[in-house]
Amino acid sequence: MNNDKLLSLRGISKSFGSVLACNNINLEIRKGEIHSLLGENGAGKSTLINMISGIYTPDCGELEFDGKISKLKSPKEAMELGIGTIYQHFKLVEAMTARENIMLGTKTSIFSNGKKVDTTVKGISEKYDLGVDLDKYVSDMSVGEKQNLEILKVLYKGAKLLILDEPTTVFTPKETEKLFKIMRKMKENGCSVIFISHKMDEVMEISDRITVLRKGETIKTLDACYTNPKKLTELMVGRAVDLSIETVDTPLGEELLKVENLTVLNEEGREAVKNINFSIKEGEILGIAGIAGAGQKELCEAIAGILNIEKGDIIFNGEHLEGKNPREFVKRGISMSFIPEDRLGMGLVGSMGMVDNLLLKSYYTEKKFLIDRKPVAKHAKALKERLEIKTPSIHYPIKNLSGGNIQKILLGRELSLNPKLLVMAYPVRGLDINTCFTIYNLINDAKKKGTAVLFVGEDLDVLIELCDRIMVICNGNTTGTISSKEATREKLGLMMVGQKEA
């Protein structure tokens, strides 16, 4: 690994009103290295990356790139300098081909110098083993193909430093493996990579060096070969943390939820869930594994009464739920809680504080003309303390909080209702390791009380450790259900791409 510096940050700080997001950050990225950033939600990672990418301007401090002091005022300036950023949510035009997406924003017209552009792009694609079909439409691509196209885009524009923000969030093990091969190729060719991930095993596998952030400050930079997940987590959190998921063996009760021949259409009118059958018993956690977009979202929303079903039956404790909405569930005493994938869009209202968001679930069942807010405020304070929710006030707009704190509020609200069934769509997506384990413990506590849990997750190791059984979905169909004791990452990975359980 080259010891020459590519990027140096010295004394970088950034505030938003009274909130100090980054405080005197110091960071050094060497040429030809893979450098990971670790930190809890709210540690300052996103703000730091946005400053390196030209989205935010630092309040103070110095940024030096490739030997020159720079003051980046826009992402375009950052890209011209050689800094390319790939976010979790891809910036691609679905209705265009790969070639057209690559040419967007460049000085070369899409309709000119076609052969020369193709030769250059194909040369980069072969050099880094990206394997992008230039004539393929983005709408027809898998998640992995879209990721490769994003990488090809920034390399074509001359990126010397690539920033990958949670790139493997919805990847299968094979897609992650391929991305890591590409990252190593980039390193071999002198490119540097900043890798941001909450998945500790991936950070340990791919990194040369790791920098830990905590409360907006740089805590320490370590060589990956001289550290371990336990030490890194302690640096992130500031105290020792137990990194094992508790295995809870509880006797299973009666069958609580039964889904028969369920077919659900997505927003475009296509079949997202196709003739699915399964059941969950009291005190059981059923995991759902699958590539992003395989039908998990629609399945959860259909069970929760948000999406209408095309055909089939959803039976909860002997009662049919088809055609009923969430409000009817509450009025009929159907004890179900739903943690949606979209925390703010569907689960909570960002402009409101904790108290008002806790009231959302029950305000229309209140019989009094005026709602007594005192018990709700007391409940909000208890949740804030018990779940260590970091907020200036229980009335502070939750949209200004980190993702982990928002998720704790949502989960705390739903679990405080002591539901018989808990439906969860990616409850720990994008959350730091400490918050993840807090949520796993809450799920296990619910299981001990006899709650049935439907858990849609993307981390296969977590599904194996946390769940009793795992059902795998591929393109809306089930490819099998397997006991967690028999499951392996390899088995689940093959089932996720369509191979039926033997």
Write structural notes for this entry:
- The strands form four sheets. Strands 6-7-8-3-9-10 form a six-stranded mixed β-sheet, with helices on both faces. A six-stranded mixed β-sheet has the order 16-17-18-13-19-20, sandwiched between helices.
- The protein has 502 residues and is of the alpha/beta class.
- It starts with a strand and ends in a 6-residue tail after the last helix.
- The radius of gyration is 24 Å and the shape is globular.
- The chain has three domains: 5-237, Rossmann fold; 248-335 and 419-502, Rossmann fold; 350-417, no CATH class.
- Helix 14 runs parallel beside helix 15 (433-448).
- It has helices spanning 45-52, 75-81, 98-103, 114-127, 143-156, 173-188, 200-206, 229-237, 296-303, 326-331, 343-347, 354-359, 374-386, 403-415, 433-448, 460-466, 489-496, and strands at 5-16, 19-30, 34-38, 60-65, 68-70, 83-86, 161-165, 192-196, 209-214, 217-223, 255-265, 271-281, 285-289, 309-316, 319-320, 336-339, 421-425, 452-456, 469-474, 477-483.
Query: What strand line-up does the widest sheet have?
Result: 6-7-8-3-9-10
Q: How many helix segments?
A: 17
Give the assembly state of these chains: single chain
Poorly predicted spans: none
**Architecture per CATH nomenclature, i.e. the level-2 architecture of the largest domain:** 3-Layer(aba) Sandwich
CATH class of the largest domain: Alpha Beta
Beta percentage is: 25-35%
What's the number of structural domains?
3
End-to-end Cα distance, whole Å, is 45 Å
Mean pLDDT: 87
Task: Please estimate the helix content.
Answer: 25-40%
How would a textbook summarize the main sheet?
Answer: 6 strands, mixed
Domain ABC transporter: 7-240, 257-500
Keywords: ATP-binding, Cell membrane, Membrane, Nucleotide-binding, Repeat, Translocase, Transport
Organism: Clostridium cavendishii DSM 21758
Membrane topology: Peripheral membrane protein
